[in-house]
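seq as requested:
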Amino acid sequence: MTSTFTRWPVRLASLLACLLFWHLAASSKLNLGLFTFTYVPTPKAVLDAAWQLLTSSSLLAHLTSSLSRVFSGYLVAAVLGVSLGLVIGRSKWAEDTLLPPLEVLRPIPAVAWIPLAILMFPSSELSMVFITFTGALFPILLNTVHGVEAVDPRLVASARSLGAGRYAILREVILPGALPSIVTGLAIGMGTSWFCLVTAEMIAGQFGIGYYTWESYTLQNYPDIIVGMLLIGVLGMGSSALVKRLGALATPWYRLRRGA
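struct tokens:
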């Protein structure tokens, strides 16, 4: 408990130091050669833009649009990623047939999926959900595979010697053993879903935090750009923290082992 209280002041001081540097650099239009703060708005300008967005009627529409797109794509990616990860991690045949094409697709950035998403889906809304889905799928899938493969084979052999069948081993040994890694993948996948949001909402649409950020860029409303960026960061951090918290509740044995 004491260590938790002593760490928070350090974290707060770190944030305040970053804000102070931002204020001084933007106010003095600091030019370091490789990059410049000449056109970077000050924290006060960003705060004014944030207040303007907060008091506008469009904020709720932006939030609901982005949240629905992110969570729709994320939930599909979570179900598919965990399911495929369990199959690939437990079956050499599935690893040889499914993993190579997935590994080819994994490095493709979200922006490169835009033309194909437009061609594949009848509506722009589904196209945007698909982009967030691709962002979340691969971290969840690979962490699930690694978690399954990291389960001690001796535990599987012991369960089998006691008469456990394939599904009992999966339920009682593989899933509990792989769950911490799965939770890590789910948390990373949530963050990458938000990361892909701006790319997704570049396709089409009238509302969404990513759309708001991109529109601010095209209109050269620099404070609004940073407001959109910070809002995506806060929402992504909060949703990832929620996934981690739910994962910690689902794996109490893992927390006890780490504490030991």
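DSSP finds twelve helices and no strands in the chain.
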